[in-house]
Design goal:
This protein is α/β, with parallel strands linked by helices. It has helices at 41-55, 82-94; strands at residues 8-12, 15-24, 26-28, 32-35, 59-66, 73-76, 97-105, 110-115. It has 2 helices and 8 strands, in the order E-E-E-E-H-E-E-H-E-E.
């Protein structure tokens, strides 16, 4: 990543893996967790950097961590930040790996409890791109 520090830089025989982690806290009805919960120019920037890692032949991963036990799936919050939603979909198309996990939160630890689906359905609102 050129202009930011990755949350994690993992080294493997096949090369480095850049991992960005995002905390999902916004809960919508029917167990849907949304990210971001406010406009996130920084989040979109991180996605563009992960896309560039992939374009250069590296491995790039975005990991959503659902910080609320009622969240059963993760989606982009297109209503909150349409640009982030568009950029997330571009990242997936570019080959950035998208992961999501539910966690149990305590004062001592974050315990991964389950893998969660990520749904990149068409935006619920019109966007200015395209």
């Amino acid at each position: 990543m050129e202009n930011s520090r990755a949350d994690f830089l993992l080294h493997f025989d096949k090369g480095p893996c850049y991992v960005e982690v995002k905390s999902v806290t916004l809960l919508r009805r029917r167990r849907i967790g949304l990210f971001p919960d406010t406009v996130s120019a920084r989040g979109s920037k991180h996605l563009r950097e992960l896309i560039e890692v992939k374009r250069r032949g590296g491995r790039a991963v975005l990991c959503f961590v659902a910080m609320h036990n009622a969240i059963g799936e993760v989606r982009p919050a297109d209503q909150v930040d349409p640009l982030y939603g568009v950029t997330l979909r571009e990242a997936q198309q570019a080959g950035v790996e998208l992961l999501a996990y539910g966690v149990a939160v305590s004062e001592q630890q974050l315990l991964v409890t389950s893998a969660l689906p990520i749904r990149l359905c068409p935006p619920l609102i019109p966007t200015s791109s395209g």
